Amino acid sequence: MIKIMTGFLLGASVLAFGLAPTAGATEPTTTGPLGAGMTMYMQMGGNPGDGATLPRQTGAADAGHALGIKVIEQFSAWSPETMLAQFRQAMAAHPTCIGIMGHPGDPAFAPLIKQAVDQGIIVTVGNTPLPENQKLYDAKGFGYAGVELYIGGQITAQAMLNAGLKKGDEALEYGVFNESVRSQSDRGLSETLEKAGVKVTRLNISPQVDADSSLAVPILVAFIQAHPDLKAIGTQHGGVTGFIPQALQQAGKKPGQIIVGGIDLAPATISGLQNKYLTATLDQQLYLQGFLPVTQCVLSAAYHFAGLTINTGAGVQTPATIDSLIPLIKRGIR
């Protein structure tokens, strides 16, 4: 019986194979690039080419090239007011999509986003979320590509604790605390350290330092010198992270003497990791924050896909891991 069934199944399989159509590649749904004829205005955040912005530029440019959509870059030096003004400028051009940074917050952006969506413009956000607006317009392509901010701060803090920071130690958290959404990352860092028993002093980054991170150096030097028992410095500002090694050197500190947790992979940050002035830096994988919003725009415009929420960062880079990424960092990818 077993032999008969086996022969029957084998014969059926051969017959089915002979009758089956020849397999081949599926035909594409378009005759050209999916984003051909589309235009997207995209807010990049900082200044052209800086370490916390360049990978985002590269990712957006690569996505634009791959998908055939025209991407127009906008730079704000991280100013929320400039981001709002740029949105108005973009909306006046009536593009297919506008990619924004969430720094101004939900209330400030809400009337502008509504106006754009009512005009048929797709809006999506990167780097800093706008959760209330995303709830309203998710079905119209409003996605988010960026780190889960509070968790990102927690990850950075945990790396600092793993490096030896302990209960009773003094630490500085130098961050942006006056922006409700953006501050989540610095709060995640500081609150995680506080829960571990670390004595944390919070110092707010001014709008001037936010725009020109080199201004952080004298501020940090003065703080370090005024706090001889300081054991750690944390921040979730990519520009400031790159200037912390310079501040430590000017304050007379040696590599590893103060535990430092930061964010992003600016050239100065890479050097800081290599010479061990920096302990760990959160890797947001900024290239994805450029590539994915452009992809979101094209998919939503062409096929009416809803917004996608993608966490682009889930770990840190350290002196032990950074060297393997340097070739990609030099190309503006990581």
UniProtKB/TrEMBL annotation:
Start and end residues of each Periplasmic binding protein domain: 57-296
Keyword Transmembrane annotated: no
Keyword presence, Iron-sulfur: no
GO CC term, one of those recorded: cell envelope
Classification via Pfam families: Peripla_BP_4 (PF13407)
Keyword line: Signal, Sugar transport, Transport
Compartments, as annotated in UniProt: Cell envelope
GO MF: carbohydrate binding
Family matches, as InterPro entries: Peripla_BP_I, SBP_2_dom
Protein name, UniProt field: ABC-type sugar transport system periplasmic component-like protein
Entry's family note: Belongs to the bacterial solute-binding protein 2 family.
TM stretches of this protein: none
Principal place of residence: other
SUPFAM superfamilies recorded: Periplasmic binding protein-like I (SSF53822)
